[in-house]
Amino acid sequence: MVENAVVLLSGGMDSATALAMTTSNRSNVIALTFDYGQRHRKEIEAAKRIANHFRVTDHRIAAIDLTAIGGSALTDRQIAVPSQRNLDEIGKGIPITYVPARNTILLSYALGLAEASGATAIVIAANSIDYSGYVDCRPEFYAAFQEVARLGTKRGVEGDVIEVRTPLIRMSKADIVRKGEALGVPWALTWSCYHGRAKACGVCDSCQLRRKGFREAGIEDPLPYARTPPTKT
Predict the structure, then answer these.
(1) I need a labelling partner for 122 at 20 to 30 A (CA). Which of 95, 141, 148, 227 fits?
(2) How many whole angstroms separate alpha carbon 179 and alpha carbon 117?
């Protein structure tokens, strides 16, 4: 039996890999991308290219204005994006690039879409190993949201619970690169940088984690970078 799944597709390397994993299981996919006022809106175009590459015929872009909430360097241009942090600092503490309750809001939208469309699962590419320290990327958060899906939807209380899947949650960035490479993820089409410039900055937390993953996996990252990150790790 072919299942239906809603896959949150940001346009980055992680979500592209999660999409590839889902399509490799022959699932029918609704790819869901959010335009939430992020500084790096370039990732939306990346998501379109990735969805097209994997022949996803149902790709939806939902607009949610999180700039009205503020409190993050990704939604408030008055707040600077941290750069050139040493890799051993990244993931320790919650950075200013954390968007307040973002994944709770986006998952809630995805949950509604999954319930209405008859999808059996929501797939999100959250990662808690090589990540920026966001509280809504931890396994316990997704376990709690699974309870929301069970208790807070018509289908859930009737016993048809929508599954919240986090296939990358325990993977390192290098593991993600290896998995994506095996599944044919077009890395050149993805975008990870917290800026939306012509070239990825190379020194924000997201760029550094991406480059670390490719380096440790022994695979060349095809994205051009404007700067070289610090050498200290």
Answers:
(1) 95
(2) 29
Contact 226, 101 (CB under 8 A): no
The predicted-structure confidence for 115-124, as pLDDT tens digits, reads as follows: 999 999 999 9
- Residue 144 is which amino acid? A
Is the model's pLDDT at 229 over the cut of 90? no
pLDDT at residue 92 in the model: 87
Determine phi and psi for 150, rounding to 5 degrees: -75, -40
Helices marked H in 85-167:
102-117, 139-151, 154-157
Q: Does a structural domain hold residue 229? A: no
pLDDT of residue 131: 86
> 38-56 burial by CB neighbour count: b if 16+ within 10 A, else e?
bbbebbbebbbbbbeebeb
- Report the distance separating Cα 36 and Cα 26, nearest Å: 30
Domain containing 168 — which CATH number?
3.40.50.620
**8: DSSP letter:** E
pLDDT tens digit string along 146-196?
Answer: 999 999 999 999 999 999 999 999 999 999 999 999 999 999 999 999 998
Q: Is residue 101 part of a domain?
A: yes
Q: What is the chain's Cα-based Rg?
A: 17
Asked if residues 121 and 114 have their Cβ atoms less than 8 Å apart, the reply is yes
**224: in domain:** no
Identify any residues that bridge with 5 across adjacent strands, giving them in sequence order: 29, 121
Structural domains of the chain, count = 1
Sheet holding 58-63, edge to edge: 58-63, 28-35, 4-8, 121-123, 163-165
